[in-house]
Amino acid sequence: MLRHLMALLTLTLLSLPLTVAAQTDPTSSDPIAGTSVDDGPATATGRQTLEDILRRQRGENPINPIRSEDLGGDALNAPGMGPLGGASDSDIWRQIRFDEADIRNSTLNPNGDVLVQTGGIWWENFRKDELRTYGGWLLIGTIVVLGLFFALRGRIRIDGGKDGTLVLRFKFIERMAHWTLAGSFILLGFTGLFTLFGRKYLIPVFGHDANSVLLIGSKYIHNNVSWAFMISLAIVFVMWIWHNIPDKTDLVWFKQAGGIIGKNHPPAKKFNAGQKIIFWAVIVLGVSVSVSGLSLLFPFEMPLFSHTFEILNGWGVPGWFGMESFPVALAPQEEMQFAQLWHAIVAFLMMAVILGHIYIGTLGMEGAYDAMGSGMVDRNWAHQHHSLWLEKLEEKKPHKIKTPAE
């Protein structure tokens, strides 16, 4: 008796694959029971096709009209069983995929209802390839160029050496704002690079768990230290903008290459032309990276690119480069993708500028670090690099100059 039952069970199991295969054959024109409300043919069930997948990989929307229209219906009754439910999983998935689902999100913003969108594939590819490659080579190339320049030019020395007379160059509040800006930017730079390069370079060395801990910490540091960066950037701008307005002395500085090449030391006020370039680069790039960062922190409240693209299209900018018009109907997720790429590109440019600034303030020029270290610089250094500023200081504020005896 047991043998008969086992044989019957074996025959039943062997027949199941054949039955399932017959029911799910995509080339068959026979109705597929239980898979659509109207028991339609296989070609009308809206199942995903290879072309759908390829279109998404190209950044295009699927064109299958059945899938985008078959977004619900009455529950089906399986033979001998009760209803399968109010809606099938396929119906719910299609509703989400085509942004037709009745969703409530915690942001209370209707833009948050968009759970799936197609544009992320090109963004991910650009982030993994062009952004990493060109951004990484920009930083490496900047370091190499600075190293070669140091090897050829050496350190810029103070003519005649230090005489011991100290001049107050920056007050405590100025140094505090500078170091807050510098320290926060360094933290933001490293945590941003960890986030971008972690998957490719850190996981193979330290493993997934260590990389996960590092990137979670980097996220919290990046999101919170950014406020210190933005506040100190505003303070630095207010304090130093009047000293960084271009004037005719800058032309002389450029003509003599700032004294870096050769032996000439052009006259300069509190900030020379090179420092003014650094200042405005930090302000412009810093504001841009801050605004794009705020857009990433508050994506539904601060969309940036839809209106920007609309303005650029109105000016005809895409046509200047033989491109099609920029997209203006952007989902919040697409806004974040553009904002993230812009944020990273501007950050790479800013890091390259800051590397040059760090070089001049440390290895490149003798006595330069003292200006932001103690705030006091040697009089010979001040006369060599900022003679106009020193003359004005000696005339109007002699108390800021301390002789060795003092």
From TrEMBL:
Does the keyword Nucleus feature in the UniProt annotation? no
Q: Topology in the membrane?
A: Multi-pass membrane protein
Which GO molecular-function terms appear in the entry?
Answer: electron transfer activity; formate dehydrogenase (NAD+) activity; formate dehydrogenase (quinone) activity; metal ion binding
Q: Which cofactor does it need?
A: heme
Membrane spanning stretches: 134-152, 179-197, 225-245, 277-298, 341-360
Domain of life of the organism in this record? Bacteria
Keyword list (alphabetical) reads:
Cell membrane, Electron transport, Heme, Iron, Membrane, Metal-binding, Signal, Transmembrane, Transmembrane helix, Transport
Q: Report the locations given in the UniProt record.
A: Cell membrane
- A single cellular component GO annotation: formate dehydrogenase complex
According to UniProt, the name of this protein is Formate dehydrogenase subunit gamma
Q: Which organism is it from?
A: Salipiger pallidus
